[in-house]
């Protein structure tokens, strides 16, 4: 009896081919090609790597200088198809433009109107649903200017979840959240189901390890890695070891909570490698561990 054939990978719902974006002489994106299938994907990269630029393209608020995008089977270069994409899209920008005099409920309700939820009763039920999802039901009538930074991030996430979007684009959604709020965020994202595309841009490698089945690493406007979290950790296989003192041959070394040093780089003879983490692979991949740590 032969083994069954492997299950085919799902078709990409978002595809970028040779995307280029420049600001003057700076190439924010330099020939980026990637595909995103249903499920949660993580986007990692140091500051200035081009992550926010890529997310703005996928959210249809910017256009590439060259290359082709296909989002949910549609071409965002077409005004008609771009509108159809936006009806199926949820976008949480890194710097949301809040109306600070609005309450949390009023702001999310305002966005719901922009998303063409015209029936008042149905719209208000949807607003209450997403505010409850992000844990803000008891704060919904507070003015945004009176909310903490973490609460404002949750308001921004709530408006992105309106209408149960097929594509969810999240730019640094856990910035400013305390550990309890970050766990709540993971609960919300993991509960969305596997039939939609979620792209999560973050500096928090532990969020990627906890949530994502697929990882893309951007560095200096180019894709440096695409694969699973396990494969990204594997980049550092055999290149992570522990010592009682800083290892002079390590590219970067730091003291851990148990008093020993965690070393990354070319292990010296006799060193006993330890199992690498996703963060180890990421830091070695982009070439400058201190830049990644920042």
Give the arrangement of secondary structure elements.
Elements: E1 14-23, E2 26-36, E3 39-44, H1 51-58, E4 66-71, H2 79-86, E5 89-92, H3 104-114, H4 120-133, H5 149-160, E6 167-171, H6 179-190, E7 197-201, H7 205-211, E8 214-219, E9 222-227, H8 229-234, E10 240-243, E11 250-255, E12 261-265, H9 278-285, H10 289-293
Parallel strand pairs: 3-7, 3-8, 5-6, 6-7
Antiparallel strand pairs: 1-2, 1-4, 8-9, 10-12, 11-12
Helix pairs in contact: 3-4, 3-5, 4-5
Individual helix count = 10
Main sheet: strands, sense, barrel: 6 strands, mixed
Query: What is the total tally of β strands?
Result: 12
Give me the secondary-structure category.
alpha/beta
Question: TL;DR?
Answer:
The chain is an alpha/beta fold. It has a domain at 233-293.
Task: Report what the structure shows.
This protein has 294 residues and is α/β, with parallel strands linked by helices. It has a domain of 61 residues. The chain has ten helices and twelve strands. The strands form three sheets. It has a six-stranded mixed sheet, sandwiched between helices. Strand 1 and strand 2 form a beta hairpin. The N terminus and C terminus are likely disordered.
